[in-house]
Design goal:
single chain; alpha/beta; eight-stranded mixed sheet; 19 helices; 11 strands; 47% helix; globular
Amino acid sequence: MQKIDKVTVIGANGTMGQNIAAIFASFGNAEVYLVSRTKQKSILSKNKAYHSVRAESIVNKMIPVDFDELEECVNKSELIFEACKEDWDVKIDIHTKISDVLRKADKNDARKYICSGTSGLSITKLAELYPEKKRSNIVGMHFFNPPYNMTLCELVPTEYTDRSSFESLKEYATTILRRTVVEVKDSPAFLGNRIGFQFINEALQYAEKYKFNGGIDYIDAILGPFTGRAMSPLVTANFVGLDVHKAIVDNLYENTSDCAHDTFVLPEFVNGLVKSGKLGRKTKEGLYRTIIHDSGFKIRQVYDIEHGEYRETIKYIFPFVEEMIGDLKVGNYGKAFDVLTKNRSIEAEICCEFLLKYIVYSLVATELVGYDIHAADDVMATGFNWCPPLALLEAFGGVESFLGLCRERLRKNMIDQIDWNHLSRRIEKSNYDYRRFLRAKK
């Protein structure tokens, strides 16, 4: 395994950039150059990273710089990590700058890693911005937000990647950075985001479809923590940022053609929020927002799709949810899922359909993008903190029960696109216990 003592993080002023820099400095014990457009932004990033991880040991290891010092930083570092905006033009500009530095150095840095933290753009196309002899160590290194809590790291090789060098980086990420490393193919959005954002975007489509029932918070109430996720899907989109969400699903819609293709169409109301700068948590309003009165009293509001304005969130009461949570509280997991599958209210049917499709699409996507059936479990458990699909399948009663429910509940257009015999042969027992993900709360 190659020793990595110095790392350059470009785009360190972003939330992911500063947090990933802290991972390299703390777990990796590396000296990290924080590169931003201005040195002041890098200084601010260093302070935010320190306050985020509360690790005094990283303070002296994080060195704020600007682009004037990029050449020196790149030449000193064993690993260069690009964490810039998810935009092709921005990525091309940054990687062209790195490539120019490497050309000027006029030496073959065979062991210098060039990594991109893109959440789904082509690593192969980025590699092709470099001279041929420099392409062997260009790798996608996709961390998940927040990286101190989400340990997943998707590593993405290209056709140019040197296998020995790649295995060394994998060992470094696993043993030194303490990541859950999953190797994935260079495919749009890779694996975790392909599965997770399919679920989230279809939930947004359903929010639009059921806007007269309540829309956003209505769907979130149907797909809350009791279904096996740390936060409901549309709260997750608000946390990630609607601009990031749009970039991921637009990329998937344009560049994939699997059974979930239509579920990657971004609803028009989300496009409207993005255009108006209402991107979610980072801009303080998006799908949700919090109003703080002078007294300090907080009111949680949600965007009302029907009326195009914000209103207070509603505390929905669905009998199937109340029953499921009651059973989960006392450990009756089988009974909780009996409630879900036997209740024929519209909300229970939406919930059941979403969970079944989540399992099916995870298995489909893993075959397309991953190398192992358990990869879907790893990316969803450690990248999203969602109940892994193979584990959730067991909560539904096992393979036969799951397949029977799919035939009964899923729509014909999806059923007709799946080779069910092939899919069922690939199913294996999960390495995860579904019970730790099913939370007895709304």
